[in-house]
Amino acid sequence: MQENREVTENIGIAVIVLYASVYLFSVLYSVLLTSVQFSSFYIFFILLSVFLLYLYTCHLCQATNSLFLYTMTFHELFRDRKVPPKVEELTLEGKPASTLIRVLERFSSMSGIVTSSHFKKDPEAKTRVSASEIQAKMNKMVKFHRRLEAQQADTAQSLNNWAADLPHLNSRQMIQEFASILLTQRAGSITLSEKLERLKDSFSLVNDRERKLNDLAAARTKLLKNVKDSETKYGVNASCTTLLKEKLEEVQCNLEVVEIQCIRSLSHELKDTFAEYLIAIQNYHARLSDASEAYYACLISFQKDDRLIDQSANNSDVTRILADESSKARSSPACSQCFRELGITTGCAHDSSRNMYPGDSQSNLNHNPQQFAPSPIQMSNDAAYDFLEHDPWQ
């Protein structure tokens, strides 16, 4: 009470001094506006105002310090309903403790309490998970599936719109088939999200029963304590003890009933929902596997078509003209003389059988030499294999 009164007095004095200094400054400002002369009276007013501001600052600091000490003392007195600290505890090495030492000790004790009570958690509390937390996590999973489904539909639509403008038929079909894969995946994701929604509802039922179990268990613990206290205070056969025992029996019966209901919800409703979710996962993977196999076969057919396109491009007129020019250059006397000096063969069909196509024999080649004759491009490529040890340009 004394510290509280001191804080109030200091704050009141500080407010009065502030009001007086502001009033003096306003008077001084009005006088300066009306007169031009500067006399000692103005200096006196200025010094008085500065002095009042100094008093205001001092009293405000004292009020703040007193309020801080009063707050810490109040916190230490009424924290955890403990007894106030003794005078011997506020001493240091047998000497009376000063105000600064008291403040430091109280501050250190407060910091120690904070670290011990708020940062030291029970290791068993980390492993304890309730059904409500699982329900909240499943709700997040359902929301994630919804966002994923919307993104998949948007991506498939964009792919179809982009493929419609492609000039190549195989490329267009490849992109459209991939968009259909995304739509198949989206359909399976919709089914899974529905089953997750049912799982979340089943966990909500389990959560209600679990909350009832916790409430009834807490009530039973409280009633057991009250029964023991009543037996100690009033006796075993007292009326209040009998009433408490009847309430305890009622709570115990309700607790057993709710336990049976919780077990039934776990063994029937939740188990059936898990089975439905498992079947949905199997169907989803089967549909996705069929779609991916079909898309793989489509890619293989596209690859064969691309090979045919490449072969037709190799047999085009431009390629044939370039090959003819290359063969003429190779059959020139100067080039042949250079190859003979270096010991390099020209890769003709009658010199070596390595230019034959796979599966052909020498008899078939002799039977129809024009049909099985290698192209000029192949002869030029075969001749290039002989440049492993000799480089004619060096």
Please explain how this structure is put together.
The chain is an all-alpha fold. Among the domains are: 1-35; 132-310, Arfaptin homology (AH) domain/BAR domain (Substrate Binding Domain Of Dnak, Chain:A, Domain 2, Up-down Bundle), CATH 1.20.1270.60. It is built from 11 helices and no strands. The protein is flat, with a radius of gyration of 48 Å. The N and C termini lie far apart (109 Å). 7% of the residues are buried. Mean pLDDT is 68; it is low at 79-97, 111-121 and 344-394.
Task: Compose a concise summary of this entry.
The protein is mostly helical and 394 residues long. The protein is built from eleven helices and no strands.
What descriptors fit this protein?
Substrate Binding Domain Of Dnak, Chain:A, Domain 2; flat; 394 residues; disordered C terminus; transmembrane helix; 0% strand; single chain; transmembrane; membrane; mainly alpha
CATH superfamily of the domain at 132-310: Arfaptin homology (AH) domain/BAR domain
Strand content: under 5%
Q: Mean of the pLDDT scores?
A: 68
What letter string, H or E per element, gives the SSE order? HHHHHHHHHHH
Query: What's the N-to-C terminus distance?
Result: 109 Å
Could you name the CATH class of the domain at 132-310?
A: Mainly Alpha
Q: Give the CATH architecture of the domain at 132-310.
A: Up-down Bundle
Number of helices: 11
User: How does the overall form come out from the CA principal axes?
Assistant: flat
Structural class: mainly alpha
Low-confidence stretches are 79-97, 111-121, 344-394
Tally of extended strands?
Answer: 0
> In the CATH scheme, what's the topology name of the domain at 132-310?
Substrate Binding Domain Of Dnak, Chain:A, Domain 2
Describe the largest sheet.
Answer: none
Radius of gyration: 48 Å
State the helical fraction: over 70%
